[in-house]
Amino acid sequence: MKSDDWHFQIMGLFDQHNVDLLNRSCNCRRWDLTGIPCIHTISAIWCRNEDPQDYVHDVYKVSTYLRCYEHAIQGVNGAELWLKCELPPKYENKPGRPKKMRRRQLDEPPTTTNTTRMKKCQKSLKCSKCRIVGHNARTCNKSSGQAEEMAIGTS
């Protein structure tokens, strides 16, 4: 259905589309996105007895392609004639959990001691088997029978 010289309403079996030939748009948006007229636009162009190729965007035309590549493309020397340059070192992710502390800048002074954490003050070890100070039950050299005798004898 023709609204005026430039606007059409194209009706299909299940849908209808509005085509604006002056602004080169269709509400299916295919013509807007690609620059190539969609089927709705082509039927509107045929109603005007015009050629659909006149409505294709200039990017797709042979004359534009020839204009882009009319200048000579200069050759490039082989890789052996290229200037030598130092490549940046390869970045490798180190295994393990990332560091918690932030990385200091070069001009920042390093921290001498970590004042945010308290050190663990370890009590003297006392074996639960033989009751001797200096080691624990796991590292006790006494057999289990001797340790029980010693534990009974000390209590």
Automatic annotation (TrEMBL):
Keywords: Metal-binding, Zinc, Zinc-finger. Signal peptide: none annotated. It comes from the Eukaryota. The keyword Metal-binding applies. Residues 8-49 form the SWIM-type domain. Pfam families: SWIM. Residues 93-115 are annotated as: Disordered. One of its GO terms (molecular function) is zinc ion binding. InterPro entries: Znf_PMZ, Znf_SWIM. This is SWIM-type domain-containing protein. The lineage of its organism: Eukaryota, Viridiplantae, Streptophyta, Embryophyta, Tracheophyta.
